Amino acid sequence: MPTVIRCTFCGRDNDPASKFCLDCGKPVVANGARLIPVPNIGGGGVVPDTRVSAKVDARPGGASGVKTPCRYCQTPVDPALPFCPKCGGRVAAEATPAKSTAVCGSCMNPVTPGADVFCARCGARVAGAPEPPPTPAMGTAVFSARAAVSGPKISILDSTGQTVKSVTMESSESTIGRADGELRFPDDVYMSPVHAQLSFRDGQLFLRDLGSRNGTWLYATEPYKLQDGDSILVGSQIIRFRRLGYPGPNPPEADATRRLGSATPSADVAVLQQLRADGSARDSCHLSPARSVVVGRAEGDWLFPYDQTMSGRHAEIRSEDLEFIVLDLGSRNGVAVAVRGERPVKAGQKILLGDQTLRVESL
């Protein structure tokens, strides 16, 4: 039974001796084609391909039967066919686009300048085709021990919150101060000569105050439970939290006379004290169980209308099960807590030392 080779790209049946499809020009070698039997209907011979006949006859001039040599391999081919069955080159007169007058410099296949970047036959770049944009030259960077350090990165911020300078911790411990340490601020009169220390251990950054006069402040990024003796910074006000404990029962009077007084609240268990620069208390706000206090410049229970650095509703000291939690109410300048002992610092958290605001960018 005779066979034909069917093109796996366009489905065209080709002669078994063909290496390229007559319709699409794709290779039809054995590893890329399927051999299919063609039944012999009504006697011997190969069944005529009516699709090819109709396609050839539809061309101008029809199938003349006159064959001309292929311009590439000199194989005689019908000029009505689009591709040479041996080498796959274009042989039809209309195969070359009307606007193209150029040929590939490698295989002489007709190409369209300005439209074809690569030759469809051999894959060579067409002369005059637009070049791809140049790849930026990365080059080899000069090794720097300082650049190779992968410790925590810290930014120094200005009064508007913009980064002025960025530094990287080069060792596991860094001291900050006005006169001594790895990070110095010699012009900051509010910073102690040796002010605070940053330590990096097991992927965690820790902050410790080194007995500075004005303290080291860590801005809260989440609700913070106040401990006895804690100091918080709200706007420009330093407020100290003190526990009072529960008062004992009053002994009965000798003459059985009752004392007058406010019945609500019945007891105060803690107090907030506004501190002056010398550490003395100026004003206070008492806290009782189940009572929350809002601190602000214009709204709340404890107001500071003269403090322009405080937001209208700045912070809340909330009572929860005899504990008191401080929360930032979305203020512009935030709420900071004075560091006592060693405190962990998270990426994105801000630190206040003297008149300098630092922000931990990464760990």
From TrEMBL:
InterPro entries: Cell_Proc_Reg/RNA_Proc, DZR, FHA_dom, SMAD_FHA_dom_sf
PROSITE patterns for this protein: FHA_DOMAIN
Coiled coil segments of this chain: none
Lineage: superkingdom: Bacteria
A Pfam family recorded for this sequence: DZR
PANTHER family assigned to the protein according to its UniProt record, in alphabetical order: NUCLEAR INHIBITOR OF PROTEIN PHOSPHATASE-1 (PTHR23308)
Protein name per UniProt: FHA domain-containing protein
Organism taxonomic ancestry: Bacteria, Pseudomonadati, Gemmatimonadota, Gemmatimonadia, Gemmatimonadales
